[in-house]
Amino acid sequence: MSYRGRFAPSPTGALHAGSLVAALASWLDARAHRGAWLVRIEDVDGPRCVPGADTLILEQLAACGLLSDEPVRWQSARGAAYQAALDRLLAQGDAFACACTRQDIERALQAAGTPRERHAAAPYPGTCRPERGGLAGRPARAWRFRVPAQAEVAWTDRRLGPQTQDVARAVGDFIVRRADGLWAYQLAVVVDDADQGITHVVRGEDLADNTPRQILLQRALGLPTPAYLHTPLVLGDNGEKLSKQNGAQPLDLREPLAALNAAAQALGLPAASGPLPDALASWTAAWTAAWAQRRPA
């Protein structure tokens, strides 16, 4: 099996130090295993996208010597593929229309006496499942994936090791098309990974929690499950994950090698010097000799 990896940023702003770690890790993993590295712009959430951010991200990657091996793909052009996947799920009984608002879900959970951790997402209580009355005359607001009752998903992350999650208890039936008509990340990423033949996903550790939902969708749609590796997070001075939402500063790429060395340090790789192509080559050699040995594909 030929290795095919990808880096899939959302164009909600410029790349920052944390996103460069994920980009470098995915690029190096592909190079270490003599595979292809693709870039996908995950702009499915249009209202959150910043005009021109996709072009800026591609320019930032190019400044760091990280170039996609195939033409870049934009999720905003993929609606027909996502609709076909949803139609299949509906035909199989693996998805259903939902009329619930967040307030409806909170009331249902309170009525059932279901505890919820503070700040945690509320697991969907199954209110609009067809066997419980469906929409009951209300208009559909969203579409949800029907999580099986026995939905403890186990997988092995190449860095984090064995992982499990009871999706029914932790999340419940999750949204695949939102009330505003936009496609949910979970469905879009699964469809695109399969369509592009992605065999290995390397991304930030904050996305590890999404993996079991994506595995359930892959199984329902008859799609292969890639190997997953979740990279260490870069934290800000306040101890929280660097992100665009909490004010992470865009990369200063006047000295691309300095930014790449910081990302390499987060990955446990030695600093490199010299012209950028030579630095990338030395990291690839280090990754092949050390990281790929510890985290085989």
TrEMBL record:
- Positions of short motif 'HIGH' region: 9-19
What residues does ATP bind to? 244
Q: Which GO terms describe its biological process?
A: glutamyl-tRNA aminoacylation; tRNA modification
Please give the cofactor(s) recorded in the UniProt entry for this protein: Zn(2+)
Single annotated GO MF: glutamate-tRNA ligase activity
| Short sequence motif named 'KMSKS' region, residue ranges | 241-245
Q: Can you quote a single GO CC term? A: cytosol
Occurrences of domain Glutamyl/glutaminyl-tRNA synthetase class Ib catalytic (ranges):
4-249
Q: Superkingdom of this entry's organism?
A: Bacteria
Q: Does the keyword Nucleotide-binding apply?
A: yes
Name the residues that bind Zn(2+): 98, 100, 124, 128
Q: Which top EC class is named for this enzyme in its record?
A: ligase
UniProt keyword DNA-binding, yes or no: no
As recorded in UniProt, its EC number(s) are: 6.1.1.-
Mind telling me which Pfam families this protein's record contains? tRNA-synt_1c
Q: Where does L-glutamate bind?
A: 6-10, 42, 185, 203
Q: How is the cofactor bound?
A: Binds 1 zinc ion per subunit.
What role is this protein assigned? Catalyzes the tRNA-independent activation of glutamate in presence of ATP and the subsequent transfer of glutamate onto a tRNA(Asp). Glutamate is transferred on the 2-amino-5-(4,5-dihydroxy-2-cyclopenten-1-yl) moiety of the queuosine in the wobble position of the QUC anticodon.
Q: Family assignment?
A: Belongs to the class-I aminoacyl-tRNA synthetase family. GluQ subfamily.
Against PANTHER family, the record matches this protein to: GLUTAMATE--TRNA LIGASE (PTHR43311), GLUTAMYL-Q TRNA(ASP) SYNTHETASE (PTHR43311:SF1)
Q: What is this protein called?
A: Glutamyl-Q tRNA(Asp) synthetase
List the source organism.
Hydrogenophaga crocea
